[in-house]
Design goal:
- There is one protein chain.
- The protein has six helices and four strands.
- It is mainly alpha-helical.
- It has one domain.
- The strands form two sheets. The chain has a two-stranded antiparallel sheet with strand order 1-2. A two-stranded antiparallel sheet has the order 3-4.
- β1 and β2 (10-12) form a beta hairpin.
- The radius of gyration is 16 Å and the shape is elongated.
Length: 140
Amino acid sequence: MLHEAVYAGRVTQTGETYPGERLGFPREGSGSIARLGRRVGAIFVDYGAAYLISGFWGWDAMSILVIFAIIQLVFLPTLQGSPGHRLFGLRLVRLDGAWVGLWRPIVRTLLLVIVIPAVIWDADQRGLHDKAAGTVLLRA
């Protein structure tokens, strides 16, 4: 029987009581779905690093996005997360928990740079960029 569940500021009729439940992830702690505050903090760290690197070399504003993308593409497959993710205790994995590989970070980063897919979420708080790449951002 479906019941109303309240989380992330929304009431749903899906029967899920927390983000990630239908995917088999725990409610809290290590391995749970990363929440908005940590995600925003991580992206600010990564974007801020790109901004500082770009300013140090005197490059234009478009180079900030290129540097941001490079940061994502280098660190997602090697450290399971960008420097911002790791600083905020997050890690990126495939839905089955395995290594993300090489193509998933490329797809995810291209969609993240576009911004729109990253701000459209499902009930599990996965952005369209993560859904397209088959990844999930978890607490480490």
